[in-house]
């Protein structure tokens, strides 16, 4: 009898997992149940029209309902977080469902097909990508395991020194260490002290440079700043043969960029405007972006070099006409003192990696021209020539221990650990960058990147897929999104520059499909936001 019971349990894995859950061993049981489920979901390669039924069939195991935790787990496993703005309506509906089922956990709430369909209504494309492993890093959980292993290996590195700047900020915390990554699809993973506010210092300089190009254009900005690398020596002022700072990363170049950002407003208004842009770049994940007054006062009181640089630049007629150098210096100190979490800064880096479009809001922040110039500067002038050769990832480092990395077309990362080497670069951040590039073959000039991984074993190589959509595939996505009422997918395509008037093989545009399906919110978006031609006749 007992033998038959055991046999029936192990022939039905779900019953075993449910038994463990009821016994309050939910962490182990749920992990085992979810791994079994994820293996089946990875086989789900259905069309957009069939996706809803097929997803429900897999999650419910051919029953009438399934537990809510299976749905949220599928999103989390792919790297999509609850504070992702694209999924706001989904998690809002989930919270409403929780209130309706007061006192029950996600593992205890069961949902039917219509409730699941309601979750998918506004985000069918994004959710389908998550469940069928069609994100830029398909097997994201496997990738995260490798990243965590690398994190712990680097944590054992106790070399480096704590600078006076870091003592003001963090004391003698040698153990502080954070790693945050965000892909261009908005998949996120963080480990360590990623919630601790980090002072940007020079990590803000490439971002400010991109903002300046956004506002004035590359031709104007390049009249004031060159793009040549220089040694990492803060005590020497380098000017190019044309009498301009060598690049926007060093102090002289940062001063010129700051003056260009502060042409028409006072420094406080400019600072507030820049902080608002930082908030947009990071997907509005920070409740409030602040600046560290202690660091600001320490820097302003201890460093007279920046004032000397500013006067030397003014003497050489480097600043735009009418520049107030005292306001410019004060504004740069404030920009250096901006504090953000590593998690938010990874999203900011991913915005640069995604051609200027924030991956978790689908909003375009930078022009392609600004992104191209900024990433080029980060690769050639960011950290050091040795870093460019050894690691081959565009990056920048600050004396607070931060390292920002941008892998174009793949991901952005922010690493933070206060102990620095002799070149004032985070020791752990440098070690992690070298190993990340080596393990996943992320060097900018590598020719050995394989094609898209199809199994979890291939995550040991390059993690990204060759996800360059051609015109026809974008057209198909736009047509289906319009017919299904998926505003988020249409907004993302519009931000990426897709022509929203492109017809399908039958001559029908997204506007035709939206109108015929009664999707008035989509019609309004296409007409008002995309300015599509309403005179084109349907078939």
UniProtKB/TrEMBL annotation:
GO process terms (BP): glutamate biosynthetic process; L-glutamine catabolic process
EC number per UniProt: 3.5.1.2
Ranges for domain Glutaminase EF-hand: 55-138
One Pfam family this sequence matches: EF-hand_14
PROSITE patterns (UniProt xref): ANK_REP_REGION, ANK_REPEAT
ANK repeat intervals: 506-529
GO molecular function: glutaminase activity
Keyword tags: ANK repeat, Hydrolase, Repeat
SMART domains: ANK
Reaction equation(s) it catalyzes: L-glutamine + H2O = L-glutamate + NH4(+)
InterPro entries: Ankyrin_rpt, Ankyrin_rpt-contain_sf, Beta-lactam/transpept-like, Glutaminase, Glutaminase_EF-hand
Record keyword Transport present: no
Organism superkingdom: Eukaryota
Principal EC category: hydrolase
Subunit text: Homotetramer.
Family: Belongs to the glutaminase family.
Name by which UniProt lists this protein: glutaminase
Primary gene name: 20216883
């Amino acid at each position: 009898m007992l033998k038959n019971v055991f046999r029936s349990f192990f022939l039905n894995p779900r019953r075993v997992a449910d038994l463990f859950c009821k016994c309050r061993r939910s962490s182990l049981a749920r992990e085992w149940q979810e791994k079994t489920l994820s293996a089946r979901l990875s086989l789900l390669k259905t069309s957009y029209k069939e996706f809803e039924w097929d997803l429900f069939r897999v999650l419910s195991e051919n029953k009438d309902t399934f537990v809510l935790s299976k749905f949220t787990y599928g999103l989390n496993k792919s790297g999509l977080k609850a504070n992702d703005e694209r999924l706001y309506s989904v998690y809002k509906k989930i919270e409403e469902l929780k209130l309706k089922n007061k006192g029950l956990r996600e593992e205890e709430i069961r949902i039917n097909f219509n409730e699941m369909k309601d979750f998918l209504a506004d985000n069918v494309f994004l959710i389908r990508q998550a469940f069928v492993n069609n994100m830029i890093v398909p097997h994201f959980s496997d990738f995260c395991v490798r990243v965590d292993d690398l994190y712990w290996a680097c944590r054992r590195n106790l070399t480096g020194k704590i600078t006076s700047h870091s003592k003001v900020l963090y004391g003698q915390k040698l153990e502080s260490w954070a790693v945050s990554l965000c892909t261009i699809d908005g998949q996120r993973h963080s480990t360590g002290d990623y919630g601790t506010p980090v002072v940007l210092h020079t990590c803000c300089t490439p971002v400010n440079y991109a903002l300046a190009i956004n506002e004035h254009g590359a031709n104007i900005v390049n009249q004031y700043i060159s793009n040549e690398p220089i040694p990492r020596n803060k005590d020497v002022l380098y000017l190019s043969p044309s009498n301009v700072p060598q690049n926007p990363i060093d102090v002289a170049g940062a001063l010129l960029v700051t003056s260009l950002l502060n042409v028409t407003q006072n420094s406080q208004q400019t600072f507030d405007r820049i902080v608002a842009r930082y908030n947009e770049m990071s997907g509005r994940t920070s409740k409030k972006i602040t600046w560290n007054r202690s660091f600001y006062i320490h820097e302003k009181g201890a460093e007279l070099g920046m004032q000397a640089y500013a006067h030397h630049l003014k003497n050489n007629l480097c600043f735009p006409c009418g520049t107030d150098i005292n306001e410019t210096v004060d504004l740069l100190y404030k920009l250096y003192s901006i504090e953000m979490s590593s998690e938010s800064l990874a999203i900011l880096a991913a915005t640069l990696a995604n051609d200027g479009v924030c991956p978790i809001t689908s909003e375009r922040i930078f022009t392609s021209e600004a992104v191209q110039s900024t990433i080029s500067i980060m690769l050639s002038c960011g950290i050091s020539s040795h870093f460019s050769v050894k690691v081959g990832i565009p990056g920048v480092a600050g004396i607070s221990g931060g390292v920002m990395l941008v892998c174009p077309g793949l991901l952005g990362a922010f690493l933070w650990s206060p102990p620095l080497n002799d070149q004032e670069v985070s020791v752990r951040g440098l070690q992690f960058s070298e190993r990340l590039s080596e393990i996943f073959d992320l060097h900018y000039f590598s020719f050995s990147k394989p094609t898209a991984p199809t199994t979890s074993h291939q995550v040991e190589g390059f993690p990204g897929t060759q996800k360059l959509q051609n015109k026809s595939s974008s057209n198909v996505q736009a047509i289906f999104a319009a017919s299904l009422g998926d505003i988020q997918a249409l907004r993302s395509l519009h931000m990426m520059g897709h022509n929203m008037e492109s017809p399908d093989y039958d001559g029908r545009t997204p506007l035709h499909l939206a109108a015929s399906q009664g999707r008035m919110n989509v019609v309004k978006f296409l007409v008002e936001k995309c300015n599509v031609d309403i005179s084109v006749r349907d078939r």
